[in-house]
Amino acid sequence: MTADSDRAVLDAAWGHISQTRDATVSLGSFTRQRIERTIALVAGIGSAALGAQAFFASLGSSEELPGWHFSLTLLAFGPLAAMVLAGLIGRGVRVAAGIFAVSFVVCLALWPVVTAGSVPEPGSQPWIYFLVNISTLAAVLAFGLPLQLVWTIGAPLLYGLVRLIQGGFVVDLQVPLILDVSFALLLGGVLLALGWVFRSVAANVDATRAQAVDSYAAAAAAAAAEQERFAVAAFMHDSVLAALISAERATSSRERMLAVAMAREALTRLANAEQDAGEGSDAPQPVGAVADDIEREARELGVAITVRRAFPDDAPAIPGRVARALALASTQAVANSIQHAGGMGLAVSVTASTVGGADAVPGEGGAGEASVRITVSDTGPGFDLQTVPEDRLGIRGSIVARLAAIGGTAVIDTGARGTAVTLEWKHSLR
Description:
- This protein is α+β, with helices and mostly antiparallel strands and 430 residues long.
- Helix content is 62%, strand content 10%.
- The chain has helices at residues 3-14, 30-59, 69-89, 93-114, 132-142, 145-167, 171-249, 253-271, 287-300, 320-341, 393-405, and strands at 308-310, 347-355, 368-378, 409-415, 418-429.
């Protein structure tokens, strides 16, 4: 399996999952993101309702000292409004909730100071009491589990302490205050537990989902590898072994020619396996079509080159499979030059020549010979051909084997001054 095939398998696996904007946030957060968004939205709506109740209660409050009421309500309800807005729109929820949770603790700490001299009525709740559990909810949105526990337990207890300080620790105030604190602790514990449960379930769903995708990808990769093995086995049996058996059993000139043709076809299919290209039509093609193909393929590789053409307009056409093999081998040489030499001094030339064709006398066996030669050269640092690993088929398979399949030759001349790849194919004119 190649890297491209592995990537294709993973793409196929993810293709079975919704690809909306929210669904592609990040690996392993598919459900968690939705749970967080739902919690923030519900928290925003609930906080707006309780906050409105506390705000209207604060309008008639007379416990604060003159000049402190506006500052304290601004410190409490300003961050609360920002938290509600953030929860409704789903942006900046953690920051806004964290600011409110801290600002509420500051308000509680200031409460004995701003209410100095006032005596609370037993069984009554000041407006700040309605914000106690909102601060617990804010901690659930903003902090990790340890700080959530601190706020869930600490905020109600701090409220009870400051009310006792305000009332001078009178006995009549203690029993109703214990009930208020107990109710805040219970409600805060429920909010904390719900947040923890929902997030844990979402995390488990994400983990299970990721495992399912991995299992699917592994199964698909195994199936693809098995199919590839069958395809290679079928190719080896149908083409390579058949050609070898035919060559071994050939006894006549015709049978030997057939074995050579079968071997060439097998080499061509092997050389074209990477591009998944078959032989296609064998209709004659002009030599200029090969140069055009090289220029087009080079542009697709990101290099604009002009192939130097040295052949007459009436140059003999060449078979289609030969033209494709020459163009593909030349393109591989261009790709090698771009990859390993940076395309330094890259030049491509296509020449065609005919020897003896015009002077041949029909009926006297004087057939001429035509040849096509393509040279791909660069001025890069060159390389040592003997050190190229055996599993690198860019030269051996895509160039040398491809030319061998059509009866051509490939010569690679490389050194410190650059590399030149010469491809040549000859055929007789009859």
